[in-house]
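WARN no homologs supplied; continuing
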Amino acid sequence: MKTVAQYVDFLESKGFQLREDAIGFIHFGKQYTKATDELTNTAIELTLKAQKEFDGSYYISLLEMLVKNKISTRGAAIRFIKERELMAI
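OK structure emitted
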């Protein structure tokens, strides 16, 4: 599993250039929700898929929802999103 910093580096290697304020917001969201790296990375991934760019408010809302519902893995997060039809993935 990648740390959040490793995941951000991975995204940048694939052409997703995240600005410094977005990276700061990602770390803020992780600390604010006390989310794991896996859940944080999943929220980043799903935010990018749904919004086609990084949207801080969408990311925080998604991360809060996943933490509130005690979702802890990427697979569980994707199942949760599909079951509730929150986005097409």
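Residues 37-51 form the longest helix (15 residues).
OK
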